[in-house]
Design goal:
This protein has helices at residues 20-31, 45-55, 71-81, 96-105, 117-128, 136-144, 152-160, 167-174, 178-192, 197-206; strands at residues 11-16, 36-42, 59-63, 65-66, 69-70, 86-91, 109-112, 133-134. It is of the alpha/beta class and 210 residues long. It folds into 2 domains: 11-144, Rossmann fold, CATH 3.40.50.2300; 152-206, Arc Repressor Mutant, subunit A (Orthogonal Bundle), CATH 1.10.10.10. Helix 8 packs across helix 9.
Length: 210
């Protein structure tokens, strides 16, 4: 009698995103895949790093912007507590500058939150296997754009300022102090040699940096 061949263990995944609704939806979608298992969820950078250390997952799906940290920095910290874990960035702020930084840092996956459930599951499998999973449209835009002089936070603040929002509103959106927002805007304007924040936004958008 031939012995039954044991099925392979599912790939373990953790989710790090401060938006509970999105995080729950992702967990539900991924749990429908037989070869994927969601082992935990976290809403902050600190919780995510602790979870990665405890679970040692195959893949960590990380939001680019978290209340207490930058998603790419979180991936670096995850690598320190769980060296075998590979990161996949899932974001609503898919910009060439971020993708370039992610690739330079060794992140294998970078996708927009508009990706389909099927494509996300396939990306998790690719990243787990050590292959890249990059949004093709963003990859093309990244090739066409030059290197951004802006830091991720400067780019974020400029994007939040794009609709003419006042400093206090930008601060709330970015989870920053008003003085910090002013400093980022001033720095971005200087780097882009812009006369004001509106011109800085226009220059950054034309270059594909926000």
């Amino acid at each position: 009698m031939t012995a039954a061949v044991p099925s392979p263990s599912p790939l373990s995944v953790i989710l790090i995103d401060d938006e509970h609704l999105i995080r729950s939806a992702l967990a539900t979608m991924l749990s429908l895949e037989e070869d994927l298992a969601v082992r935990g969820e976290a809403g902050t950078a600190a919780e995510g790093v602790r979870l990665a250390g405890a679970e040692q997952p195959t893949v960590a799906i990380v939001d680019l912007q978290l209340p207490d940290g930058d998603g790419l920095e979180v991936c670096t910290r995850i690598g320190e507590v769980s060296p075998a874990t590979r990161c996949l960035i899932l974001t609503s702020h898919a910009r060439p500058g971020y993708l370039k930084r992610a690739l330079a840092q060794g992140v294998l996956g970078f996708l927009p939150k508009t990706v389909s459930a099927e494509a996300l599951a396939a990306a998790v499998r690719s990243v787990a296997a050590g292959r890249r999973a990059i949004d093709p449209e963003l990859a093309a835009d990244t090739i066409a754009s030059g290197d951004s002089p802006l830091t991720p936070r400067e780019a974020d603040v400029l994007e939040y300022a794009a609709d003419g929002a006042p400093i206090e509103q930008i601060a709330r959106r970015a989870h920053l102090a008003e003085g910090t927002v002013r400093n980022y805007l001033s720095s971005a304007q200087a780097k882009l040699q812009a006369a004001n924040r509106h011109e800085a936004v226009s220059i950054a958008r034309a270059q594909g940096w926000i």
